Amino acid sequence: MGNKALDKRILSDALARRLPAYYRHVCIMLAEGKQTITSGELEKRIGNTSAQVRQDFFTCGGVENYHPDTLKEWLSGLLGIKKEHHMIVIGAGNLGRAIISFKDFNSDGFFIDAVFDNNLMFDGMQICGIPILNVTSLEDYLAANKVDIVVITTPANVAEEILEKSIKGGVKGVWNFAPVDLRSNDKIEVQNVHLSDSLLTLSFRINEKEFWKNQI
Amino acid sequence: MGNKALDKRILSDALARRLPAYYRHVCIMLAEGKQTITSGELEKRIGNTSAQVRQDFFTCGGVENYHPDTLKEWLSGLLGIKKEHHMIVIGAGNLGRAIISFKDFNSDGFFIDAVFDNNLMFDGMQICGIPILNVTSLEDYLAANKVDIVVITTPANVAEEILEKSIKGGVKGVWNFAPVDLRSNDKIEVQNVHLSDSLLTLSFRINEKEFWKNQI
DNA sequence: ACCAAAATGTGAAAAATGTATCATTTTCGC
DNA sequence: GCGAAAATGATACATTTTTCACATTTTGGT
């Protein structure tokens, strides 16, 4: 067989970041009514080479054929989209509300069941039909309900504490927007987003480009 | 000299993504009143090895010393933080509002001057003191005002069009939150964020972990 | 001021990632 | 249904990225 997926156990971050893009473009092509998808077509749309697309698919165990439905099904399986994911959001600020109002996820089986905040003012209120609960009840909630993913949109100083409680509550993953670097471990997966960092990376690229223009 | 920064011209994405984290942690340490920073301390806080920190600094041309102020100053220079950056946001939806209400950037010289939307209902309104303008006036605005960075929080189908107008308007960078893969070129730098992709990557990691648990 | 301990800068080795190649398979027009 | 053209799967190769090793420099205690 010689397939890397079977002995490596953990696929590279680079690949893990490309997979959702493959899924996204396959869904678009499916919606466009395309009958066939080729690695060359994915190359054009996504920007990486067709060889890389094929290599990625190979690394992931290979797909039966390149029909849009097959590909979507196969990628769904890899990404865990077939299952339902129950999420809660910690922090009812602007970012929290923005994430709740995103409708994109729902079609892929991601559901937000509750929002938690420490501001008593919110008590009993709802956002987009989702109840806002007091964060003091978080542990009880986790004990009583199945929660797969916790979304952290709190300030930095409480993020670590939320992570601890999530682990104790048997949560599988944390989607962290607080500006701290939470770490994955064998109990929980963490995805740090760091919006500010991303803006600084952009600023860096702009700066770098101008620097080289001046050098010539 | 043999310093890579001088002949490579473009630093790797991996490094470009780490730089903001260095900056963030140096700022925290500075606020904590630390007198000295070591590569080992950055290792503990960020998670990558001290060797990588040193290698990264070396690749970027090297820093005079590891005093917090020097480091912050040096990283600021690399990231282009010393200059003022004028930004506008396209799309006054939830995400747009969330970004506008972020106060984190301002301290680093990033200012949001205006918001654009195609919904006439918003005309004349403000968000956090920032005026909402009609998107039809975007081109005129770009011609009349210095805009460094355009933030796209629109639906996917208009993102490409906004990019074109940004290029024509002399904008240096685009921070794109629409679920399309806009590309950088020699006229403009693009940073795609793709929140949904990041959630799917998390889902993939959770799924992958469970898969291997079942295999043993 | 001196010595020991710790930290840095740098080149080179090792590991990881991406690209190119090509035999085999599939598709498509006739 | 046949043959040319195109696309894939898998290996080999090249490049990039990370880690290692260690001479040199800096720090901190006595």
What is the tally of beta strands of chain A?
7
Going by helix content, strand content and strand pairing, the class of chain A is: alpha/beta
Q: Can you give the mean pLDDT of chain A?
A: 92
| Assembly state | homodimer
The most extensive interface between chains reads: A-B, 62 and 62 residues
Please describe the structure with a list of short key phrases separated by commas or semicolons.
homodimer; 216 residues; alpha/beta; 7-stranded mixed beta sheet; 9 helices; DNA-binding
Task: Give a nutshell description of this structure.
The structure is a homodimer of 216-residue chains. Chain A has 9 helices and 7 strands. Chain A has helices spanning 4-8, 13-32, 39-46, 50-59, 68-79, 94-101, 138-144, 156-168, 195-215; strands at residues 85-90, 110-117, 126-127, 130-134, 149-152, 173-176, 189-192.
Topology at a glance:
The structure is a homodimer of 216-residue chains.
Chain A lengths: L3 H5 L4 H20 L6 H8 L3 H10 L8 H12 L5 E6 L3 H8 L8 E8 L8 E2 L2 E5 L3 H7 L4 E4 L3 H13 L4 E4 L12 E4 L2 H21 L1
Parallel strand pairs in A: 1-2, 1-5, 2-4, 5-6, 6-7
Antiparallel strand pairs in A: 3-4
Helix pairs in contact in A: 2-5, 3-4
The first copy, chain A, binds a DNA duplex (30 and 30 nucleotides) through helix 4.
